[in-house]
Write a structure and sequence with these properties.
203 residues; alpha+beta; 2 domains; three-stranded mixed sheet; 2 helices; 13 strands; globular
Length: 203
């Protein structure tokens, strides 16, 4: 007779906090290294299983890009956390960090045969990540063994698996800047095209 172990989906619980994480990594401004604070907020994305979504912190386009479509935005209780304005992350030592309560991740595998979950955190200073001029994302990080219930030992970022990376926020280029850059590049190409025959003829 063969034995099989059934896998079922329940909920997983984790504290949505960088201030009270096992290893607390800050969020800073691109290029300056200064710590962000109010009015920035953080939001949590998750994907059941293993997902890769890295960020190139040398590229503004990568920093401000949207999380992979493989992720789901967590919209439940405690899913939005203020930087330097919530929980213990207030005042001088709160800059660069957020601190919020427990979040309940639906559909987390209750079987330890497949306990992996991938998280990503975004930070922004407007009404939403996509509409904010200043924003950034952590990139993906993997955890496992989330608490199966609030009475169980609470899970913190960095407690089981990877820590939430330190990450940066950057300003999206103004549309007018992009237009001027494009116009300038076009003018250069047109000028170069006109001069190319003279250059080739040696005149």
């Amino acid at each position: 007779m063969g034995a099989s172990v059934a896998s079922s989906s329940a909920d997983g619980f984790i504290v949505f906090s960088s201030y009270n994480a096992i290893i607390y990594n800050p969020t800073t401004y691109y290029g300056t290294g200064s710590l962000i604070g109010s009015p920035y907020v953080a939001e949590l994305y998750y994907a059941i299983g293993l997902t890769s979504d890295p960020v190139d912190e040398n590229s503004v386009a990568s920093i401000i890009s949207a999380p992979s479509p493989a992720f789901t935005l967590y919209t439940g209780v405690n899913g939005v956390a203020a930087y330097d304005n919530s929980g213990d992350a207030v005042g001088e030592y709160g800059l660069g960090y957020f601190d919020n309560g427990v979040v309940d991740i639906p559909g987390y595998p209750s079987s330890y045969l497949n306990p992996y979950i991938t998280f990503e955190v975004v930070a922004f200073d407007g009404s939403s990540y996509s509409s904010s001029a200043d924003r950034g994302r952590s990139g993906s990080f993997i955890m496992d063994g989330l608490s199966p219930g609030v009475p169980s030992p609470i899970t913190f970022f960095g407690g089981n698996g990877e820590t939430m990376p330190a990450f940066v926020v950057a300003s999206a280029p103004e549309p007018s800047t992009l237009v001027l850059t494009g116009v300038g590049g076009l003018a250069f190409l047109l000028t170069f095209r006109r001069r190319l025959p003279r250059f080739l003829s040696g005149r």
